[in-house]
Request: fold
Amino acid sequence: MGSGVHFLHGDAALLDRIRRGDEEALVTLYRENRAMITGYVLHNQGSADDAEDLLQEAVVILWERVRGGTFEYTAKLSTFLYGTARNLWLRRLARKRKEAPRGGDPDDPPDPDLSPLEVLMEDERTAALASAMERLGDPCRAILLLYYYEELPMEEIARRMGFANADTAKSKKYQCKKALEKLLKAVDHG
Amino acid sequence: MDDRIDHDLLERYLLGRVTPDERMAVEENLRTDETWRIAFMEERRLAAVVRRAGRDDVKARLRSRVATPARRVPWVRAASIAAILVTAVGIAVLLRQPSVMDLPSGQTPPIASDMDVADKVAPAATGDGKSARDAGTERGAEAGTTPAPPAESGSRRERREESAAARPAGESLTREQEARFGKEKLEKQGENRVKDARPGEAGALADAVGLDETDAATSGEWVLATVTPTTGETKDSRSNEIRPAAEAEGALRKSDRAPAVVGKGATVAQAATVSQMPVSALPGRQQTLQAAAPAGTMQALIQRRDGETLVTLYPEIPFSAEELRQAQTRMIGDDSIVVEIGRQSVGMKMRRGGR
Reply:
């Protein structure tokens, strides 16, 4: 019985790179799967631009799941990307057919408990908040991304941002949310 | 932000980082207090917007990465090559052609067209008779760059045409991939049954653990390990102690005895040495068991040599070399081993007590 690191195939190496935060792995995945996804989208009433967007979205979803520790390797990565892109596309097509355009995240279905008016209002609030977020400068933007997107603990955020400790990071995050709130009010009144 | 609300608790609730008691408290507040409900909606909206922004950032970086080398570098390279070729051809033509003064009276020298230039000079440039375009493409490939396909630099219509042409291949590829995945798995299982047959090597152990001799190719004890995701909270950076996820510990511990904590770092003895092997290297029986094993489990082999315990993991997704180096192991009671590796806690309960 030997010891050491052994890789199953190319997928394992790619997953390892993603887990280490190597974004070049995404480029490899993108290039390897481009023809397949483009073929599917063009064959299903989409454009080349739609295909590019879907593939990018699918690749980033894979990135998030692997980084977040929620990815389960049940099929090849190309199969995962194909399935994800297909699901995203079918959802977008269904929305187009219903002719119910809405703002916010195009891939995030509305809360079923909300009335149509509430959905509309929620979309408006989300759009305003997204606009405020765009105006939020660093380091606030970085802190919020590390907390909500990367879901890192405060100790790690403090380390990455060069803060003294987790309490400082927590305090900074609070200040950043206050700053975002101010920007949101400015967007609402502007 | 309403200061009457415990925003920290609400944030942790949304991120799933609350205790059962905290969860109940938050949900009770959400049921009974409108202020909490509004704060919850705001917090959820913020989390969604920031996540969207994070995803867009990664997408933007991906876009810039895939656009730059594919579109610019080959064009610059091709232009440089073309310029060199045109210059070389110009010189060659001048050298080969008689000068105007040498020509008979009234005759003008022939002029080489661009097409002539490429056709005539490329073989000389590559030495193997390939066209100038081929030569440029190959050089790009040699340099590790992807030459620009027509679709990249062409119009949207061109891209559509190219993609349409590639469509049948793309679709059949998917089906092939899926079919091949299953086929490869079966083939590997068959191969391993033959490969791992080493009669007489571990017969006694095979009997003891209920495996046949072929499967117990390596002396040791096969166990089905429980894999539990861990969080940052399980490690105490100050004391350098490791505290495995409560779920893994609870599943393994037979008594209320406090587990022996092993310190972090190379200077402190570990309960076992960890290595890993691909699933495809599993002996036949173990492969079959793995195929039927529930999610969140992996095969592991525990061996004892000269008083040292060796644990070989067979993860579906291999751990990185760094994770393997930093893996921490410890005993729980006298019959279980926990390996903290990467973001996972792998718990193994041995069939017989003692090490």
